[in-house]
Design goal:
mainly alpha; two-stranded antiparallel sheet; globular
């Protein structure tokens, strides 16, 4: 990006997306390996692993609502980001040496809370760095989103290489080191750029309340991850609570209430998107490991490295379609994103059916599917982050950013549920053709879900436009 273009954006932009880049680096290492660690180290089957990964992915973002509250009410965005980074480092190191499934749950619960503190509040801080009505806000969030995908790409590449050569312990320690770099960059970048915290001073009482909330949130997260049977009740309760929070803080302002209802509709659409998106780390990850040739036009690839195609697509599309945003409003971007989502698994199904029955499918089918997913993603996710700051009531930006991440969490939990359609509990008893049949059936279900979601998006788009116009 040229200096002239960068001057249109606040100095916080490069500091924030560089920090978030390293957080995503560690997270993608974890997410790329977690399902395989659960299967191989703890001897779980596909269905059991999917429930745990889905629950963890959900909690990872659900904790963001508490993190937003902590930042808004107690310690501010700057300190929340630093606190989240420290907690993340501890969680990754525990995960690296976890001797049992219970200790894994402790690590994952810790990581979920740390991620909420860092991820939600760094986005909120960036949003508040733009002035109200700044036309560069959405472009800035698109740049932010594309930039942090560099970290995701590095994480996906590192996950596969180091897991195959050195195992999960080294991989998770590398993830912890990446988070450490991110914390250093944020701390020194903040100081050297002369950035100022939104909340200048914090009392001992505010710190105590913040840390108490962090502790209790971690305990709840550990309990839900270790007891998957209660996860459905938990996520239903979170969904209802989120709706209540949005309505309650907007009920005294009719104009804000309309904005909040429009925001809830955007969140409903996003939940379905993330449910399909997260199959990259669940059913698609296992599908690639079992039924896809680990090469791309002769270049050897690990299972996890296929996800790099998604990162590359987000980076390329993120920077190349910014000018298109001048011609599409938020609703049209969402509609376009959900339309493109319908074709992701159609590409994979086509690859299955154009390959001989007992042969593995070529890697380029997965690459094309992931590129399509990245184009869909760039139409959904950065716009959602921008809307969180645009539609939030005054002094409630952290909560609305947290609610956007909550939608990602509920979508992650949904991903664990629908991944069961592709579960194979004993691959030793199935040949390639039979496994293809299981996955093709599951992928057809994913396509059907995406098509229904697209139709729903198209219909309620007019409602959302009307609410925003009024």
């Amino acid at each position: 990006m040229s200096n002239a273009k960068l001057r249109k954006h606040p100095i916080a932009l490069p500091v924030c997306f560089t920090t978030e880049m390293w957080e995503r680096f560690g997270y993608k290492i974890l997410l790329g390996l977690l399902v395989f660690v659960l299967l191989k180290r703890y001897n779980l089957d596909d269905g059991q692993a999917a429930v745990i990964v889905g629950g963890f992915t959900g909690l990872l973002y659900i904790t963001s609502i508490v993190a937003g509250f902590i930042a808004d009410k107690f310690i501010g965005y700057y300190r929340s980001v630093l606190l989240g980074g420290i907690i993340l480092i501890i969680g990754y190191l525990i995960l690296a040496v976890a001797p049992s499934l219970f200790v894994v749950s402790i690590a994952l619960g810790t990581i979920s809370v740390g991620t909420g503190l860092l991820k939600s509040n760094i986005g909120s801080f960036l949003g508040l760095s733009y002035k109200d009505g700044d036309p560069n806000r959405e472009k800035g969030f698109t740049i932010f989103y594309a930039g942090i995908n560099i970290g995701s790409m590095l994480g996906n590449f590192t996950a596969g290489y180091f897991y195959e050569h050195y195992g999960s312990v080294v991989s998770f320690c590398i993830a912890a080191f990446g988070i450490f770099l991110g914390v250093l960059i944020f701390y020194f970048g903040f100081k050297l750029s002369n950035l100022k915290p939104v909340k200048m001073t914090v009392t001992f009482e505010e710190w105590f309340k913040a840390l108490a909330l962090v502790f209790f949130s971690t305990i709840i997260a550990i309990f839900v991850i270790y007891n998957p049977s209660v996860s459905v009740i938990f996520f239903v309760a979170i969904t209802l609570a989120s709706i209540f929070v949005v309505i309650n803080i907007s009920k005294n302002d009719s104009n804000q209430l309309k904005k909040s209802i429009a925001y809830l509709l955007f969140l409903a659409i996003a939940i379905v998107f993330w449910g399909i998106y997260n199959q990259m780390f669940l059913s698609m990850n296992l599908f690639i490991d079992r039924l896809v040739e680990h090469s791309f036009f002769g270049i050897p690839m690990t299972t996890q490295s296929f996800i790099i195609a998604n990162n590359v697509g987000v980076i390329i599309f993120g920077f190349s379609i910014i000018k298109l945003w001048n011609y599409l409003n938020d609703v049209k971007k969402y509609i376009l994103g959900m339309f493109l989502l319908c074709f992701v698994f159609i590409i994979v199904i086509f690859g299955i059916n154009t390959t001989s029955e007992l042969a593995k499918i070529a890697g380029y089918w997965v690459i094309m599917a992931y590129l399509m997913l990245s184009l869909s993603e760039i139409c959904i996710s950065p716009i959602g982050m921008s809307l969180a700051t645009k539609l939030a009531p005054e002094n409630r930006t952290g909560i609305f950013m947290g609610l956007w991440l909550v939608s990602m969490g509920i979508g992650g939990f949904l991903a664990g549920i629908i991944a069961k359609f592709a579960a194979i509990n004993s691959i030793d008893h199935l040949n390639v053709a039979q496994m293809k049949g299981v996955y093709e059936h599951a992928f057809m279900i994913y396509v059907s879900i995406a098509v229904v979601a697209f139709i729903f998006t198209f219909i309620i788009g007019k409602v959302i436009n009307k609410l925003l116009a009024e």
